[in-house]
Specification:
- This protein is of the alpha/beta class.
- It contains 22 helices and ten strands.
- The strands form two sheets. It has a six-stranded mixed β-sheet, sandwiched between helices.
- Helix 20 links the parallel strand 7 and strand 8.
- Helix 2 packs antiparallel against helix 5, helix 9 packs parallel to helix 13 and helix 19 runs parallel beside helix 20.
- It starts with a helix and ends in a 5-residue tail after the last helix.
């Protein structure tokens, strides 16, 4: 259970007040339960003539506290019988039982009332922590993790933690209190019999603990398989067009059915082990009662115990009242073991290290935007080099184009500038300042990105353009849209700038989505612009409109262009040709064409049938 308490130490501190109140009312409810049961003893002994005795008032200094309390309770009960009769005394005891039960149930409700904000608050905080962590993790984390599995951890695993660990908190704080109070009272009544109980209960705990450990292991496998299913669903939804185009419906169905069958079998194992908790605890509890009944009865019959028959009945009532909390506690422990498996998976996100960190004392932002890469090398896994010994100067205000075959390292090089990744060797500087010496947020505030795939959100056009610019006005947004050649089609929509564009902008054409991305970059007004094949997926007419918008956006900015269509970079100040992670040629369009028939750039131009003139 150390993992469970480790979770509490991490998440409970903001809710200490609720926890303290819950424990207080649980203790109060436990004591009220015991004292309400204590009223059974005088009913058995005095009203039904099980015990004939005469009592006198005893002062506190005459005997032990136990003897004083018991004696005076019987004394007042006897006086009540003498003055008002047995029937009135029975009615008075019954009324006292009702009152104490009312207080007990009120205390029980108060305990649940105060544990609720703690339980739900921890789940809320956990969701926030996971989401916040995901937004701050580097891009490299998601190259090794499947997006569907990450989604499964955020949804299914957090829900499992809520349904198992958090829903068991009340039982985990209430039942141990009840068990401790009951055991204390049992020790108070008969220490010999209670020592026997102390020997018996750990044996029961060991049996149930072993089953619980197996449940945790199986639950971890089940939650991992659930992540596989979620990843499969996410991939299917994202690639549905290709699946249908290649008639691969049966292939993906069979794959999903096979993975779902594995999850089905694991779920059966988990459910069966969890279902074992109640019957096992009931059987072991009944066996324990039978053994204690035999042992306690033997003590009384042999005369080796200070208990009489009525006290033994009260002892058994207390022990039996402890059985249900013990069973609930065992069920809670089973449930918690299941939730701990999910917590392990969630913790993989929470404990993930983020190497992209701001320095403790960041330097001020550069005034210009001259970029330099010095002896830069990079690999994703530490073995395969993606970039090797890159040296590149990008003067402030210049437009530099990166070209090359797919996989040559163009996008990776561009990702190093906003620190989506850090180079494994060398450094990237802006105006001579290593970007690792700048605050990450300040560095990225210098930059605007327009990618090949326009990344938009299921929101209004206004909010998509103003994304990341909190104080943007409608006038500023519309000016940016006009520069991006987007205002005309926006005004033609039903609600204009308040039109919702759907998931990833699905209600817009590719050219319209790209122009919104450009408008978003224009509104940010960045000093450095990164264009990653921004026109490669567009038709000729859309490309013309988008290229016009890009030309306006690139004016007077330091621009890094990743180009697939070489016709779009003729006017670049410098073209860098990458091949297998190295810069193999640099120059202007005309200079590279003069490099000879065997030049990499010339071959790329000839492949695209671009006129040398």
């Amino acid at each position: 259970m150390k993992d469970f308490f480790a979770i509490l130490r991490r998440f409970v501190p903001p809710y200490k007040r609720y926890l303290a109140l819950n424990i207080f009312f649980n203790i109060l409810a436990a004591f009220l339960t015991l004292f309400s049961f204590a009223l059974i003893v005088p009913i058995l002994e005095m009203l039904f003539k099980i015990k004939e005795a005469s009592y006198s008032y005893m002062a506190s200094g005459d005997a032990s506290l136990k003897d004083v309390v018991v004696n005076n309770f019987y004394y007042y009960t006897q006086m009540t019988m003498e003055n008002y009769g047995a029937t009135a005394t029975l009615a008075l005891l019954a009324a006292a039982l009702v009152v104490m039960t009312a207080f007990k149930t009120g205390a029980t409700y108060a305990a649940s009332y105060f544990i609720t904000p703690l339980r739900n608050g921890i789940v809320r905080d956990l969701r926030n922590f996971v989401y916040d962590k995901i937004t701050t993790l580097p891009m490299g984390f998601f190259t090794s993790e499947r997006k569907g599995d990450v989604m499964a951890r955020m949804s299914g695993d957090v829900a499992e933690i809520e349904n198992s660990i958090m829903s068991s908190l009340d039982m985990m704080f209430k039942n141990p209190v009840m068990i401790i109070v009951c055991l204390s009272m049992m020790l108070f009544i008969s220490w010999q019999l209670t020592i026997f109980v102390f020997i018996l209960l750990p044996i029961v705990g060991v049996v149930m603990g072993r089953v619980g450990k197996r449940l945790k292991r199986t639950s971890f496998e089940g939650q991992t398989q659930w992540g596989v299913l979620m990843a499969n669903i996410e991939e299917t939804l994202g690639g549905l067009r290709i699946i249908k185009a290649f008639n691969a419906e049966d292939k993906v169905k069979n794959r999903f059915h096979a993975e779902n069958e594995v999850f089905y079998r694991l779920s059966n194992r988990v459910a069966r082990r969890q279902a074992l908790a109640h019957p096992m605890s009931e059987f072991l509890g009944t066996a324990a009662i039978a053994i204690i009944l035999w042992f306690g009865g033997s003590l009384i019959l042999s005369g080796h115990s200070s208990m009489n028959a009525a006290s033994f009945i009260y002892y058994m009532v207390i022990f039996y009242s402890m059985i249900n909390p013990a069973k609930d506690l065992s069920k809670a422990m089973y449930s918690i073991q299941k939730g701990l498996a999910s917590m392990e998976r969630v913790d993989k996100i929470l404990s993930a290290d983020n190497p992209i960190k701001s320095p403790d004392n960041p330097k001020n932002l550069p005034r210009e935007a001259a970029i330099k890469l010095e002896n830069v090398s990079f690999s994703y896994d530490g073995t395969t080099q993606v970039l090797s010994d890159i040296n590149l100067d990008i003067p402030a205000g210049a437009t530099i184009a990166l070209v090359g075959q797919s996989g040559s390292g163009k996008s990776t090089l561009a990702d190093l500038i906003p620190r989506f990744y850090d180079p494994t060797k060398g450094k990237v500087t802006i105006d001579g300042v290593d970007i690792r010496e700048l605050a990450v947020a300040d560095l990225r505030s210098l930059m605007g990105n327009v990618n090949q795939e326009a990344i938009l959100f299921n929101d209004t056009i206004f909010n998509n353009i103003a994304f990341g610019v909190e104080s943007a006005t409608m006038e500023e947004v519309r000016v940016a849209a006009k520069i991006a050649n987007a205002d005309d089609f926006i005004m033609a929509t039903e609600q204009q700038y308040q039109t919702c564009i759907g998931d990833r902008g699905c209600r817009l054409s590719g050219g319209q989505r790209q122009r919104l991305s450009i408008a978003r970059a224009i509104l940010k007004n960045p000093a450095i612009l990164i264009l990653d094949e921004a026109t490669s997926a567009l038709d000729s007419e859309s490309e013309h409109l988008v290229q016009q918008a890009l030309d306006r956006l690139m004016a007077n900015r330091t621009t890094l262009v990743i180009a697939h269509r070489l016709s779009t970079i003729r006017n670049a100040d410098l073209i860098c040709v990458l091949h297998e992670g190295r810069i193999v040629e640099t120059g202007t369009h005309d200079q590279l064409l003069e490099a000879g028939a065997k030049g990499f750039y010339r071959r790329l131009v000839e492949m695209q049938q671009v006129s040398a003139n």
